[in-house]
Every structure is written in C-alpha cells, then in structure tokens.
Design goal:
By secondary structure, the chain is an alpha/beta fold. Helix content is 23%, strand content 26%. The protein is built from nine helices and 23 strands. The protein has a nine-stranded mixed sheet with strand order 8-7-9-10-6-11-12-13-14, sandwiched between helices. The longest helix has 18 residues. The radius of gyration is 26 Å and the shape is globular. It binds thymidine-5'-diphosphate and magnesium ion. The site of magnesium ion has 4 residues, from helix 2.
Length: 451
C-alpha cells in the first residue's frame, strides 16, 4: 500500500503547506504547523451516523435513554454520570503516577465479567500489568491484554476480537504509520484519537483513553483531544496524600463537575463514600486561621477546611499564595476585606490552603477565606462547630449560592452546630440543633467575629 500523503496544517487558521515551516504562510503565526494526513476530501471524515443524513423535525426524533454499563466502581460511575455509554469516548487525564492505570485496570477487571474488554498497554509490558494485577488481587480477571503502540495493529486486534470496551493506556504512546511525526506529538495524538473515536462511534465500542498532562499542558498534552471526546475526566489530588479525586470536566452523557473520591491503598483504589470527613483536619481545640466551608462539588456537598496564615511581611513585597484556591480571587477578596470590612492586610503575607489537596473553584468559598484570614490576623479561633458559605461581591455584599439547604444538611449530618450563610440562603423552617447566622455584608460577618 502506498504511504498516504501528509501535509502540514496550521492549528490557528487551518491553512496547509506541503513542508514544515516555522511560520504559517497563510496567517503568519509562528510554530503552528502540524503534520496531518492529506486524503481526498469526502473519504476520511464520514458522518457519525454512517448513512446519508436527512433533515428531520426535532419532535420526530425519538430520544433513546442511553443504556449505561456500570463499571463496578461506584465513585467512577458517579463521575461518568451513571456508567459508560456504548459508543462513548472517555479521556482520563492526570499527572504521572496518580493512578490512571490502576483505576482502569480495576474497572476493566470488573467490566470484563459481563463485557468483553481489551486493555491496550503502550507504556508498560504485559508482565508489568500482570504484576500490578497481582497486587490488586485481579490475576484471574477476564481482561484481554495487548501490548502494542501501532494504531493499525490495535485496530486489527479490535477487528479480530470484537471487544465492547477498549482501554488505550496511553494515547501518547500510540502512533500511526501514516504520519512521520514521533509518537506523542500533537499530530500523532490527534490523528490516532480521531481514528479511534470514529471507530467507537461506528461500531458502538466504548473507548477509554489515558492521557498525560505535561507541565506545558496545552501543547502535547491531551488538551488537544478535549473537543473530540464525549467525556473528559481529570485525576487530581495531593500526590503526598492517599486521596485521589476524579473530576468530570466535560460530559456529554451526564453532569460536568461531578466528583469521585478514592483512596489509594495497598490493594489499589478504593471508593470513599463519605468524603467530607477527609478534608477536615483534626484539631483538638479550634485553632486560629481555620474556617470550614460547605462547598458543592457536582451533585454532592463537601465540607472542606480552609486555612489561612497571615504573617508580617517578610520581603520587600507582601506575598499572597493560594493552594487549591484561585490566587487572583484571593487578592480580590483581600481588597474587599480592606474596603468593606476595614481589615488591612497590606503589611502582611497571606497564605491560604484548602486542606486535602482538593481544588475549589466555586465562589461559595469566599466568605470562608475572609473569615480564615481575619481569624489568623487576630490570632483568634472561630467558634467551634461553625460552617461558613457565601459568595462575596466587590460592593461588600454577601451573595446567595445555589443549593444552600443541601449544604446545611451536610453540615448538620457531620455534627456542626452553627452555619453562617448569605441572608438569601436562610432556611424557611428552623433546622434541629443548627443555629443560623444570616449575613448580608462583609462588615456584618467581620463584626460577628469581633464579638
Ligand atoms: P499508576 O496507576 O501506575 O499511575 P499512572 O498510570 O497514573 O501513571 O499508579 C502508580 C502509583 O500508585 C504508584 O506510585 C504506586 C501506587 N499504587 C498503590 O499505592 N497501590 C496499588 O495497589 C497500586 C497498583 C499502585
Ligand atoms: Mg500508567
């Protein structure tokens, strides 16, 4: 077979050029030409539905409920939105060593019992996988293994064995003969993923890709795939603790931002059913600089301790550092605290941290950050068993957040006695054993602490 022709196309404007150049001749941007296949139009990209598409009124289309295949790992199913969907393509990204291969081997083993599963490994040899399976107690698991990195050979194996589920660990190691670029390059990753995605859609096979996140992220990392796949999951968590979080960044078959919580144990990943407890540190007595927020991750409320340390400035410039929270937002909150709360932090370094390696993006954490900062600055602990949530606006107002009731209930369930919240989130009926402190403005919240 003649080798397919390749061209270099610009990732910015789509212009093509027969040779690689530093600058795109069409739009003039630098370093954007990427090798890709030049095939006659109309053959390479078939429509997903296969047959000729016709125009249909929306009302005439019968929506079918996606049949879910449960992976047997409850927390993994939760982030997937209830399980895998036939023809669905999932990308699982994360730092090296965080547990991607472990998770997918465990899932494959559980799925293999009822659905034919092929685990393609390009990073480790079959021996290494067997060793891991031994450690996980899965030596006799009904999983088929293929140690292969050539796309054409992988597709041939899929044709020969007709698996229902294919795991590709990792997409960065796979290459196609059609392109001359090295495995792991943007061109190879994109082309191989596109071909596997087409295969998934046409045959209803479920494909799970493992993708590495490089420090540079956007370039050779799996980011280029995010648009093509149905579901993007990211593993996060502090590598020094045993807890691992999986977050759905995008999900065509379920809610995004859903969170799954695992613990890495001697024998693989174990789902954590009551995750709130792990993001709280155990202080015998209340300590200054600590506030607990009821945050919402996907459909689930989580209690997370926010710690702040406010210390006289050590260098020429005051430092503001946020771990697990947005550093820009911290600067903004300190400005609001100054203007509307009358608390000046100009002469202080401010460090804040979300305990347990969790990353909190929602603004409901704002009020907790302010209280933790104020508490550290005054070296006075907040009252014990207090939960805080609420968004802070630039005008010094405390804005309501979504699903306040659920947050209060989670707090009550874990034995918290007092909840400080935006007035608009005040529960209509009193809740047993829980005192409510509604606040409208930053100064009111700060005043409360001064009492
Ligand atoms: P791995 O799944 O190989 O990570 P990735 O595929 O994301 O690179 O996980 C590797 C880490 O997990 C490694 O540091 C060892 C640890 N681990 C355990 O703690 N317990 C286990 O049962 C297994 C299989 C791995
Ligand atoms: Mg791996």
């Amino acid at each position: 077979m003649a080798k397919p022709k390749t061209v270099y196309s610009c990732t910015e404007c789509g212009g093509q050029s027969p040779k690689w150049q530093g600058q795109c001749p069409q739009c003039g941007t630098w370093n954007t030409l990427v090798e890709s296949l030049a095939a006659p139009a109309g053959t390479r990209f078939e429509s997903v539905s296969g047959a000729q598409s016709k125009v249909t009124p929306l009302s005439a289309v019968e929506a079918q409920e996606n049949r879910r295949i449960a992976s047997g790992l409850e927390e993994f199913d939760r982030v997937l939105g209830g399980g895998l969907v036939a023809g669905g393509v999932v990308l699982l990204g994360g730092d090296p060593g965080i547990g991607k291969s472990t998770l997918l081997l465990q899932a494959s083993a559980a799925l293999g019992a009822a659905h034919r599963t092929l685990y393609v490994t390009g990073e480790e040899s079959a021996d290494q996988i067997a060793l891991r399976a031994q450690r996980l107690g899965l030596v006799n698991a009904p999983v088929e293994l293929l140690a292969e990195v050539r796309l054409e050979a992988i597709v041939a194996a899929i044709d020969a064995t007709h698996p229902e589920i294919v795991v590709i660990d990792s997409i960065q190691t796979v290459y196609t003969d059609a392109l001359a670029s090295a495995p792991g390059s943007v061109a190879q990753v994109r082309e191989c993923a596109a071909q596997m995605t087409r295969l998934a859609k046409q045959r209803g096979v479920i494909v799970l890709f493992v993708g590495h996140v490089t420090k540079e992220g956007a370039i050779a990392g799996p980011r280029v795939l995010e648009h093509n796949v149905d579901t993007v999951l990211y593993f996060e968590g502090d590598p020094h603790s045993s807890f691992r979080l999986i977050r759905a960044i995008k999900n065509r078959f379920g809610a995004a931002n859903e969170l799954g919580v695992f613990a890495m144990t001697e024998r693989g990943l174990r789902g954590v059913t009551n995750p709130s407890a792990i993001f709280l540190s155990q202080h015998a007595d209340p300590v200054p600089g600590s506030a607990i927020v009821a945050t919402l991750e996907g459909s689930r409320p989580l209690l997370v301790e926010i710690q702040a340390l406010v210390d006289p400035v050590q260098g020429a410039m005051p430092r503001r550092l946020a771990v697990g929270l947005d550093a820009q937002r911290l600067a903004l909150l300190l400005a609001v605290l100054h203007r509307h709360g009358g608390v000046d932090t100009a002469g202080f370094d401010v460090f804040v941290n979300a305990v347990g390696g969790v990353r909190i993006q929602e603004p409901a954490v704002d009020l907790a950050v302010l209280l933790a900062v104020q508490s550290s600055l005054r070296n006075k602990p907040l009252q014990s068993k207090l939960i805080v949530f609420g968004e802070v606006g630039l005008a010094g107002e405390i804005r309501p957040v979504q699903r306040g009731q659920e947050r209060i209930r989670e707090a009550a369930k874990l034995g918290f006695k007092t909840v400080m919240l935006p007035s608009a989130n005040r529960p209509r009926a009193p809740i047993d054993d829980v005192a409510i402190i509604p606040v409208d403005r930053v100064d009111a919240a700060i005043d409360y602490l001064r009492k």
